[in-house]
Amino acid sequence: MSPTQRVLDPDRVRRYLAASLGPSGAVADCGPLTGGGFAAVWWVRLDDGREVVLKVGPPPQVPVLRYERDMIGAEARYLRLVAARAPGVPVPALLHHGRHPELGDWLLTARLPGRTLWELTRAGADVGPLRAEFGRALAALHAVTGDRYGYDGGRAAAPTWRGAYPAMVDDLLADAADWAVPLPVPAARIRELVARHAAVLDAVRRPALLHFDGWAGNVLAVDGRDGVPRLSGLVDGERHLWGDPLVDLVSPLLFRRAEDEPDDPLVRAYRAASPFPLDAVARRRLGLYRLYLYLLMTVEMPSRGITAASDPGRVDRLAGLLDAELTDLARTPPFRRPLLPDGG
């Protein structure tokens, strides 16, 4: 269990439900949900038959990464935003966002039906149509435009994407220093490589709303009438930010390269709904975004209680992936020509 996850039990869950819904929050049954490593998440069935999800943030004394500050509040803002400006994207209805000196920060949402894309893929289901729906949902989400690049709530942000992305990397490198996380190269070298290739970020001229955490465990589906899984939900928007839509092609193809798989159903459906060229500029940007994700997944390990002894496969794999992206950046010359908006 991650140190950032509060220890919950049925009695404590009942306290959260009472604080959220008052007399209508009587709990009939409840239990933990697995798959995440930041918040404690429980499913709850109420006496009136409704099913809801309780998500509780870390205790205030538990250290978190810089971008994780107020992540429960960030998810509440995300859910309100999507409901108002991208209602076609299936996200849970926000029922309550609470803060309390003892209970901390929590969310209560409706529980969406379905199994995860991760479960369905492992079971050998036909997930091609589902991945295509997911691609179209991401395109709809990206149609929402913000007033900044980067994160909200006082976290790393800037008036331009070229300013925000290096600030986000700097925060992770500062976290790595705080937690004494070993990196494949010195932090100064990572900053140097990011600065060397930062010109490609000038192609991004609109801060799109990004989910950023679209791995297969955060995509829900129910069986359609034909038995083929169909999209029923996109959950866990707590890590959302504003920037380049290409960022959201990294997590859904985790440990792969979207630019090398243009016929993947998600990539193909996304490009049909929101066309962009898979040219050299886009490829360089995707490389920078994989660098950010692998750096994040590496830096977060101590705060989640993950060590080389507890999860050697993760440690070794991330080290190799991060080193590969850094090597690519080191051996590739920077772009010198002017860039058109959105990768042209």
Account of the protein in words:
- By secondary structure, this protein is α+β, with helices and mostly antiparallel strands.
- The chain is 37% helix and 16% strand.
- It has 9 helices and 12 strands.
- The strands form 4 sheets. It has a 5-stranded antiparallel sheet with strand order 1-2-3-5-4, with helices on both faces.
- Strand 4 (94-100) and strand 5 form a beta hairpin.
Kindly summarize this structure in a few lines.
With 344 residues, this protein is α+β, with helices and mostly antiparallel strands. It has helices at residues 10-21, 71-85, 117-122, 128-142, 161-179, 187-196, 265-273, 280-299, 312-331; strands spanning 27-32, 40-46, 51-56, 94-100, 104-110, 115-116, 149-150, 157-158, 208-210, 219-223, 229-234, 241-243.
Key features of this structure:
single chain, 344 residues, alpha+beta, five-stranded antiparallel sheet, three-stranded antiparallel sheet, 9 helices, 37% helix, 16% strand, globular
